[in-house]
Amino acid sequence: MAKYPDDLEMHRKHYEEIAEKLKQDTFAQFLGIQLVEVGPGTATAEMVVTENMLNAHGTTHGGVIFSLADFVFAVACNSYGKTSVGLNVNTGFLAASRAGDTLRATAVEEKKNNRTAWYRIRVEANGELIANADCLAYRKSDYFVPVE
User: Fold this and answer.
1) Which residues lie below 8 Å from residue 129, measured CB to CB, with a gap of 6+?
2) Phi and psi angles of residue 92, each rounded to the nearest 5 degrees, phi first
3) CATH number for position 118
């Protein structure tokens, strides 16, 4: 039976390399998303809503909110250096936000095994919950950091 690297050890040993790799998400950069924190199976990021991110009703477009949630999901599930991809995301939009608001998204790992992992995401604006998401990731066999 194959021996898999310890996830926490991989996170600790390769933290800087993992964080730098995940900060290179060009779409997140385009949206102005700032990665605030990366932990083992967790992530927090923020972005300021700009005028070009609004829908026809003058509130933040759902695609923008989803993109922020998806980014912290990606960071959290890749935080061990093991390549992971999204399988399913179920998002609920609970309240509106507007231009000038700072959105803060937090991902927390609820359960994982060698092949799948489940995350809960909260997106807040001004301390108010505006969206949540339940996310399922597929954990591939390869790593994007060195495995000894």
Assistant:
1) 94, 95, 122, 123
2) -115, 130
3) 3.10.129.10
The pLDDT tens digits of the residues spanning 41-86 come to: 999 999 999 999 999 999 999 999 999 999 999 999 999 999 999 9
In a domain, 82, yes or no: yes
Residue 1 lies in a domain: no
CA trace torsion 80, 8, 34, 31 (10° rounding):
20
Please answer whether residues 124 and 66 qualify as being in contact, where contact means their C-beta atoms are separated by less than 8 angstroms: no
- Here the tokens at position 91 are 């998002």
CB 135 within 8 A of CB 73: yes
Domain membership of residue 2 (yes or no) is no
The separation between CA 20 and the C-alpha centre of its own chain, rounded to angstroms, equals 14
Write out the residue range of the structural domain in which residue 16 sits. 7-143
Q: Looking at the domain assignment, is residue 72 inside a domain?
A: yes
> What letter does residue 54 receive in the DSSP assignment?
B
